[in-house]
Queue: 4 jobs
Job 1
Amino acid sequence: MIAIWNRKEIMVTDNMERLAKARYALQGAGIQYSLITKNLSAVNRSAPPIAQGSHHNDAMYYLYVHKKDEDMALHVIQEAIRSF
C-alpha cells in the first residue's frame, strides 16, 4: 500500500486504453501503484453532448506511485504509450 504522504500522481485520464497501457507497463517493471476512480456521472448528467457521436466518459482515473519510483514510472509509461 502506498501512503498518501509517500505517493505522487503520475497520470490522470478518462481513457481506459491509456490507463490499461500504463498499468501493464508498471506491472511489467515491478512498480507498485494505486488507482483511484472517481465517478463523474452525477456531474455530467446534465451536460449536453458537444457533438453528435461524441464520447462521454463517466469516470476519471488517477494513478499514483511511491515518490521514489516517480521517475522510473513516468519513463516506463511514456515508452509504453509511445510504442503502441
Job 2
Amino acid sequence: MFNNPLLNKDLIEEREYQLDLAAEALEGNTLIVLPTGLGKTVIAALVAAERLSSRPWGRVLILSPTRPLALQHLSTFRRLLKLEAECFQLITGVLSPSKRSELWSGRGRVFSATPHVVWNDILSGRLALEDFVLLIFDEAHRAVGNYPYAKIADAYVSSARDPLILALTATPGSSEERVGEVLSSLKINRVLTRSRDSPDVKPYLAPLRIRAVRVRLPPPYVEALNLLKSEFESQVSSLASKGLISLGREPARVPLRTLLELQSKLAGSDDPESRSALAGVALAIKLRHLMGVIASQGPEPALDYLKRISTVPRRGKSDRLLLGLESTRRLLNLLKEAPPHPKLDALRSIIARKLGASAEARVIVFVNLRETVESVYRCISKIPGAKPVKFYGQAARGGKKGMSQSQQKRVLEEFANGSYNVLVATSVAEEGLDVPEVDLVVFYDPVPSEIRHIQRKGRTGRGRPGEVVVLLTEGVEEGMFWRAVKREKAMPKVVVRPPTPLTEFADEGREADKKKSQEVVVKVDTRELQSPVVRELSAMPDVRLSVVRLEVGDFVVSDRVAIERKAADDLASSLIDGRIFDQVARMRETYERPILIVEGRDPFRPAGRAVNPRSLMGLISTLALMGLPIIWTKTPEDTAQIIRLIARREQIERRRRVSIRKAPTRSLKEDMERVLASVPGVGIETARKLLKHFGSLRAVFNAEPDQLVEVKGIGEKLGKFIAEFSKMKYEEGGNEEA
C-alpha cells in the first residue's frame, strides 16, 4: 500500500497503525475512531490512492462540515497524491450552481465539498454518484438527526456502481443510541478504534496533563444571581401551577431541556391558554441563560445580551417582560459596578507562567461565547510577552461581522509561524481545522459535550508534552466538567461492539429495490430547495425529489397536477403585490388540476404582515370561485404529507406519469386583452369586443363615451367610466378599495 504509485511517499511518515487501519478500511464500509493529531486524513489518502489506482475511472468525494475544513482536506490530498492539478476540485456554496455542475462533470477525480451543497446538487441532478469509488465522511459524529450525511450515504450506496464508505472521527459519542445512529446513517459495518493508550499509537503521542482550576464568585455576582434565581423560580412556579411542568424540591434546578421541550410543545398547540403561556416559558429560558452567562463569563457578555434585546426594533413578548422586570433594572446597576470575572485573573496567571517558562510556547484559549473573546483578548494583551489574536466563525453575530475564510487562514498561519503565541478561539477551532500543535490549552469555560471536550484536548500533547487547564466557577460548572469526563471514559465501551455483517446491508439493498417500485417522484422548483417542506419530503423513504426550474407552481406530482404552496406571510404578500392572481391563472392555463396549499396556524392573521383578515378571506373566496382547490395545513410536515399523498394517488393508484408542462406563451394580442381586461368593470370578453371594434388600445382609450357604447355589452355608465379612467391622473386614483 505504501508503494502505491499515486502516493507522494516522501511526504508521508510510514506509521504501522495508519497502514493497518487503511488496509482494513478497504474491506468494507468503515468508521475509524482515532485521537486528534494522529493523521486520520493520511489514512483517508492511503485508502483513496488504492481505490483510484485500481479503478482508473473512479472518483473520490471528501465531505467536511465547513468550508475551511473542505479547503484544508483538498490541500492535504493535493500534497499527498500524484495527480494533475485539475484532478482536485473544491465544491462549496461560494460557487454558483452552474459552475458546480461544470466541475462535477469535468475531469476532477478528488472532490472536497461541504454536505449541504452536495445534497442540493444530488437533488437537482447536478451530481451523479455512479463513478465515485470512495466517499469519505470527516467529523462523522455529525451523522445524526437531519444532518445531510445520512441522506448522502443513502443516495451513494443506492447509485454508485462500486461504493465504499470511510467515516472518520475522534469522538463518535458516549451513548449507544448516538453511536448506533451514526453507524446506521453511514451504512457502517466495521468500527476500528485506537486510543492514546493503544500500543501502536502510544509512541507518537507525548504526555498530557489535565487539571481543573476553580474560582469563587465575588459578592456582586452572587447578589445578581440571586435576583435572577428568584425571578426564575417565580416563572417556573407559575408554569407548574398551570400543570405544564412538575417541580422538584428546588425550582431553580428545573433543567433547561425541560423548558425547551415545553416551549416546542406549546408552540405546536392550538389551545389559547397554552399559547399564552409561551411567553412565560421563553422568559424562564432567558433568565436561565443570563444566570449561566454571569456565572461563567462575567458582566460584559450579560450586559451585551441585555443591550442587544433592548435595541431590537420588534421585540418579542418575553423580551419586553424581561426588560420590564424591576429585578432587571437592579441587575443592570449591579453588573455595571461588578468587577471582572475572577477567571480572568486565573487565566492571566496561568498564561504568564507558561510563557515565562518558554518564550516559544503556544497557547489556545477556548471560550464558548464570541462576546467573551474581546474581554479575554484584552486581559491577555496585558501579559508581558503575550501576542494574542482572536479567532472565531464566519457568521455575523450581534451586529458584528464574522471572520472571512481568508482571515481565518491568515491568522492560523501567523499563529503557526510565531507572529502570535496565544489564540483566543471559539468553537470554530475545535473541529478538524489544522490548528498548529500547542503547549497549553485553556478551557475558559467547560463544555457539556464529551465530543467537544475531546476535540479541545486534542490540540495539545501530540508530538511534545501538553497541558490542559479547565477554569471552573465554583458551585456552578463542576458538574458540567465531570459529566463530560465521565462520558469520555464511557466512550470506548460503547464504540467497541460487534461489527454489523455485510449481508445485513445487502439485504437492506434488496429491500430497497422492492420498495423502489412503490416510490413516487415529486418535481420541485429550484427556488423551493431551502424550504422546510423540501427537507420533510427528502426524509420520506418513498419519495424521490427531482429538482428543476418550474415555470408554474412549486411542486408537480403528475402530468395534470401542479401545487402552489403559500405560507401565511407569503399569501399576504402575494395579495398586496397582486401576483397571486397571475400565478393562479397560469396554473389553470397549464395544468388540468392545479392545487393551492395554504400553510399556517392562522392564515388570516399572518405574523409578518399587517393585512386585514377580511381581505385575505375575500382572496380565498375569489380563488375558490375561480375553481381552484385550496388545502389548509398547519405545518411544513403536514404540507409534505399532503404532497406525498397526492403524488401516490396520481402515480401509483391512477398510474399517471410525472411531466412538466410549459406555460402557454402569450401573444401580444393576449397581452393587450389582459391590459384592457384589468380596467374595473371590463372582463376578458368585453376587452376582446372593444379591441375588435377600435383596433388598438390607444383607440379604445381615446374614444369618447358615446363611441364606446356602440360596442355590444358597454352601457352608458361603463362607457363613461372607461373614458374617465383613461384620462385620470395617477394621484387621483387614491388607494381605497373599489
Job 3
Amino acid sequence: MEGGKMSLVFNAGAFAMRNQLTAGMQLRSSLRSFAKENNLLSKKDEEFLDALDDFEQQQIEREARRKHAEKNASGIRQRSNVFSSLCAPRATTSQQAAQKAKQYEAQALSLAQQARVSAGIGDDAAAQELERRSLEATQYANQMYAQEMQLARQEAQERKAKLDREAQDYIEEKKAKQAAEAALRAMKQRRLQEAEQKRCAALNHLETARKAKRKRQQADIEAWGRRVTEGQFWIRQMQLAQRGEHPAQRLAQASLDAYREANSSVTAIAPSFTPGAERTTRGAAGSDAGRSVSTGSITTNMPGASSYLPEVIAA
C-alpha cells in the first residue's frame, strides 16, 4: 500500500513537470502561435519544435527520477529500523499473529513496488536489496500465518478445556446438591420413623396403663366382693344359729345366701366390671332352680361362684 502511494505521488509529480513550461518551451510556443497566425508554420517546422519540447521534457523527467531515487533510497534507510522491528516473527495470541502477518504482507508489497521503481530508474543494487527484503517479509508473513493457526488451535484447546472444567464443576455441584437433598430426605424419613416409634410407644404405654387400671379396678371389686361375702356369711350364720337349724344346713344356706347378696352388691357397685351382672340381676328370682343343697356339699352352676364361696366344712 505504501509503495502504491509513493508511485502515485511520483506519477503526479511527473505529470506536473510534464505540464510545466520552461523558458525555451514558452519561447517556442510563442513562435508557433505567431507562425500559425501568419501562415508561416510548415509541418516540418512544427515537428522540429515538438521534438525540441519533447527532448527538454525528457531531461526534466530524468532529473526528477534521479531526485526521486535518491529520496527513495534515503526513505529505505529510514524504514530499515521499522522493518527490523517487524523482523521478529513472534506473537502471544492468534489475533496478534494475524495483525503481524498483515503488516509483513503489506511491507512485502511495498518493498516489491519500491524494487520495481528502483529497477525502472536503473538502480539495480537498491532493487536487489528491496527485493531481498520483500522476500524476507513474505517469509515472515507466512511464518506469522502458520503461528496464527497454531495459536488458534491452542486457544481452541484451552477454551475446550475451560468448558470441560466448567461442565465438570457443574456436574459435581449438581451431584453435591442431589446428595444434600437425599440426606435431607433421609433425615426427614428418620425423624418420621422416630416420631412414629414414639407414637407407638406412647400408645403402648397408654394401653398398658389402661390394662393396669382395669386390673386394679377388678382387684378392688374382687376385694369388695370377698368382704361383702364374708360379712354376709357370718350374718347369715348368726341368723341360722338363732333359728336353731342344723350346722351343715346352716353353713350351706349361709354360703349361698351370702354369695347371692354379695353378687347383687358388687353389681350395684361396679356393673361394667362384673361378668354376667345383667343375667344375674334378671335371673335372681329363679336362681334356686340351678342349685342343690345337700348335707355334706354345695353344688351350683352360677358363674364365678367358686371364687367367692368359702370352703364348706363338713358338719
Job 4
Amino acid sequence: MRQQLQSKRYEYHALLTADKPDSAKVESIAQEMEVLGQQLAQQRVKFDLALAQAGISRGVGMGPGSCGGGRGHMGMSHW
C-alpha cells in the first residue's frame, strides 16, 4: 500500500509539472492519495492494538537521533 501511495505521489507531481495540468486528474489523484493514507492509518491502528493486546510496547522507534559524541565529524586535522 505504501508503494501505491508513493506511485500516486509521483503521478500527482508529474501531472502538476505538465505544461497544462489537468485539474480533474490532479484532484482525482489527490483523492486517491487521501484514501490510501487513511487506509495506512487504519492498518497502523490495528497493528498498535495488536501489539498492546500482546503486551508489547511499540516504543519510540529509533529515537531522536544525533550526530553522536566523541571525536567524529570534525574533519581530518582534529586528531
